[in-house]
Design brief:
The protein folds into 2 domains: 193 residues, Rossmann fold, CATH 3.40.50.450; 132 residues, Rossmann fold, CATH 3.40.50.460. The chain is α/β, with parallel strands linked by helices and 343 residues long. The chain is built from 9 helices and 15 strands. The radius of gyration is 22 Å and the shape is elongated. Helix 1 packs parallel to helix 9, helix 5 packs across helix 6 and helix 7 crosses helix 8.
Length: 343
């Protein structure tokens, strides 16, 4: 890669699950880069635009100018596309024996960066995506990470963008569910995203006045959950809201998995349904399940998420200008600082 002060051309990519605020980061990076006289390009669908450019008739690497990012701050999703498949460190590849296996193809990715004369990368993603960015940095690519996940499960940053939007939406859903649960005297089990971190469940449950909150960090005893519901009934409350993180698991049990594909993390699901099914006979009340799922990922980012997204994007470009690489921008109120990707 080129030495400090000679950056001419940078790339941006978004990997993993989408999160409200991604487009705001992209806008901030592009405007900050253009203001410095740098060219900016977006890699389509994680790293697929470089790994499989033939699949994109319009090009896997698209130019980003001021006009490209005009009016996108309030939009959910990502204009570049994203994927949680095709991790280049564990890329699904057909072997000579005809079987699919995971292979490290990061050297090919580094060559693709050089072929396209890219001087640096701003990688937007969660732990998996930033892990890939760290590998690329160790192989000579100047890379800056921007923390993105609705799960808020990244270390060394107080919060990640997308989390506030997800919790705000989930809380609004709980507000609605209280009225219908009360009308029918039901228990409604609400499953939320978060994988192996309970931040969404905890914040949603507390702000939405749930009666029970089940998180991955604390394995639950369904009998104690039933006792809590019965105690609530004795106090005169004849309905209940139980918030369950998708990664919640019973004592001595395991998380609920619905599938596993080569080259990607296991797919969680069914935790809420499991709790409802086990809880109903113990409390003698009808239990219904609501899975918020990908509703938490969509929609416009909140004001808070827009602001930290814009700050993160601008900070990522400043980091490159200062000659940094292999770092992630992090919120340490009231400032944004840099922390090592390999930490």
């Amino acid at each position: 890669m080129k030495p400090d002060g000679t950056i001419k051309k940078i790339a941006i990519n978004t990997g993993g699950g989408d999160a409200p605020g991604l487009n705001a980061v992209i806008r901030a990076v592009v405007i900050s880069a253009v203001n410095r006289g740098w060219e900016c390009f977006g890699i389509r669908d994680g790293y697929n635009g470089l790994m499989k450019p033939e699949e994109y008739p319009e090009g896997g690497l698209i130019p980003l100018k001021r006009c490209s990012v005009r009016g996108i701050t309030h939009l959910g999703g990502t204009i570049l596309g994203t994927t949680n498949k095709g991790n280049p460190t564990k890329y699904p590849t057909l072997g000579p024996d005809g079987k699919m296996r995971e292979m490290d193809r990061t050297d090919e990715l580094v060559e693709a960066f050089k072929k396209n004369k890219l001087d640096a990368l701003v990688a937007l993603g969660g732990d998996g995506s930033l892990g890939i960015a760290n590998v690329l940095a160790e192989k000579g690519i100047r890379a800056i990470g921007v923390p993105k996940t609705i799960d808020n499960d990244l270390d060394k940053t107080v919060i990640t963008f997308g989390f506030d939007t997800a919790v705000s939406f989930a809380t609004g859903c709980l507000d609605r569910l209280h009225s219908t649960a009360e009308a029918h005297r039901r228990i409604i089990v609400v499953e939320v995203m978060g994988r192996y971190a309970g931040w969404i469940a905890l914040n949603t449950g507390v702000s939405g006045t749930a009666d029970v909150i089940l998180m991955p960090e604390i394995p639950y005893d369904i009998n104690k959950v039933a006792l809590a519901v019965k105690a609530m009934e004795k106090r005169g409350k004849h309905y209940g809201i139980v918030v369950v993180a998708e990664g919640a698991k019973p004592l001595g049990g395991s998380v609920s998995v619905v599938g596993k594909e080569l080259g990607r993390a296991e797919k969680l699901g069914g935790a809420g349904e499991r709790v409802a099914k086990e809880l109903e006979p113990l409390v003698g009340k009808e239990c219904r399940t609501v899975v918020l799922g990908h509703l938490l990922r969509g929609g416009s980012p909140t004001t808070f998420d827009r602001l930290i997204s814009l700050r993160f994007g601008a900070a990522a470009v400043r980091a490159l200008e200062e000659g940094r690489s292999g770092v992630m921008v992090a919120l340490d109120p009231p400032t944004v600082r840099y922390v090592p990707l390999n930490g």
